[in-house]
Amino acid sequence: MPALIEIERLTKRFGDFTAVDDVSFSVDRGEVVGFLGPNGAGKSTTMKMLAGFVTPTAGTARICGKDVVDSPVAAKRSLGYLPEGAPTYPEMTVTGFLRFVASIRGYRGGEADERVEAAMQLTQLEGVQLQPIETLSKGFKRRVGLAQSLLHDPPVLVLDEPTDGLDPNQKHEVRQLIRRMAPQKAILISTHILEEVEAVCSRAIVIAGGKVLADSTPAGLVAPGRSLEQVFRDLTMPKDAA
Amino acid sequence: MGALIVARRELAGYFATPVAYVFIVIFLMMAGALTFTLGGFFARGQADLSPFFTFVPWLFLFLVPALTMRLWAEERRLGTIELLLTLPLPQWQAVVGKFLAAWAFCAIALLLTFPLVLTVNYLGEPDNGVIAAGYLGCLLVAGAFLAVGAAMSAMTKNQVVAFVLAVAVCFLFTVAGSPIINDFLSQRMPVLAEVARGLSITERFNSLVRGVIALRDVVFFGSFMGFFLFVNAVVIDHRKAD
């Protein structure tokens, strides 16, 4: 059986600038892959291509065997995607927003209510369910975005900086949530926080300048006797500046 | 149907912000004022609504672009375009949904001019069939302008640019059949004069106001909207991630 996320020789050029350069990897069920790299490394662009938002210049990406360019709607059905910054419609209430996403995803009536309930429970949003999203704190907004991506219990999750802006307790909650879901899903998360990779990821991919520099278990990356931070710097800093 | 779900969310969004109320109040005030002053509603001594209908396209020329300029720009500013277009929904349905919401909104604004119909029926015995055809004409003009405005909004991130472009293009189609343009063109490029008359929104609108519902006029408006919605979808597909 093919992996749930398959990326083959994916490339994106904006004019002369190559944002993502010949990236290939796959993520299997049960894996949590941490996508690491400095700002502008191409993490978000890769994820946007995977989600079908940015069209690749070359290469292919498949979700559950569905090509994101050739059959975008089918690929998106199997995907839960948290875009960078967790965008939501500010004037909507939390339930209103989640109901909207549920109905687009084809849930009706009682089933839609159940899905919305379950997603709010997973992300602890019940307390604010009737508040307009614009009145919520950054941490709550992020969790609304997360709830939206989990609503349909997708086999594939792509989360762009899921813990950005959360306080330490909320970060802990989200990591636990990811760990709990890990056995049934293929999960790709991008992050700046190296400890997060060690805490939740079964594999780490380091990317800089659009190229994959390392792809291994967090333990494999740090051995022997170096911290992940050191490894990250060695890999991603230009050689002459180091 | 995904387009209707998007349309419902959008329409609710209009009424969650001051946009809807400002638009409706200004539209009703100006339509009323123009009908009774410049239009000479009473002085004409005729029981019909043609003084009102004459001004509607000119009001829409400025009000409709004000409505559409934020259509895609707002989604870009909030980042929600990435959310909307990564849901399992064909892109054209997002485009059509947004258009339908704006169109329904214009229909609501038009419906709220009903006191004029009551007044004219109280004062005399108007041909209500002609009035209905006039309202159909207003709705079709609104739809045509909305389709243009939505396409312009997809082309630029800047709301002011979107507004100015939309007014300019709508104006072009409004005056295309006017005597000034017609004389100018028939002296220099007779072929273009024919084309310009054919593309004139005003001429078709005027014949609807006279009570003539011709299939070719309705088909014209339909294809006009279809064309600009198609442009909208193509532009969104190419520029969604910019």
What does this structure look like?
The complex is a heterodimer of chains A (242) and B (242). Chain A is α/β, with parallel strands linked by helices and 242 residues long. Chain A has two domains: 1-78 and 155-242, Rossmann fold; 88-153, no CATH class. Chain A has nine helices and ten strands. Chain A has helices at 43-50, 72-77, 94-104, 109-122, 138-150, 168-181, 194-200, 218-222, 228-236; strands at 5-14, 17-27, 32-36, 58-63, 66-67, 79-82, 156-160, 186-191, 203-208, 211-216. The termini of chain A are far apart. In chain A, 47% of the residues are buried. Chain B is mostly helical and 242 residues long. Chain B has one domain (2-237). Chain B contains 13 helices and no strands. Chain B is globular and about 55 Å long. The A-B interface holds A 48, 51-55, 72-74, 76-77, 79, 81, 83-85, 87-92, 96, 100-101, 103-106, 148 and B 2, 5-6, 9, 12-13, 16-17, 78-80, 82-83, 85-90, 240-241. Chain A: InterPro entries: AAA+_ATPase, ABC_transporter-like_ATP-bd, P-loop_NTPase.
Number of self-contained structural domains of chain B = 1
CATH class annotation of the largest domain in chain A = Alpha Beta
Class derived from helix and strand content of chain B:
mainly alpha
How many β-strand stretches of chain B? 0
Computed CA radius of gyration of chain B, to the nearest angstrom: 19 Å
How far is it from the N-terminal to the C-terminal residue of chain A, by CA?
43 Å
CATH homology superfamily name of the largest domain in chain A: P-loop containing nucleotide triphosphate hydrolases
Oligomer: heterodimer
CA-CA gap between termini of chain B: 28 Å
Radius of gyration of chain A: 18 Å
Average predicted local confidence, pLDDT of chain A? 89
Q: Unreliable runs of chain B, pLDDT <50, ≥5 residues?
A: none
Largest sheet of chain A: 6 strands, mixed
User: Which term fits the overall shape of chain A?
Assistant: globular
Total E-strand runs of chain A: 10
Overall shape of chain B: it is globular
GO molecular function, one term (chain A): ATP binding
Protein name (chain A): ABC transporter ATP-binding protein
Family (chain A): Belongs to the ABC transporter superfamily.
Organism (chain A): Neoroseomonas lacus
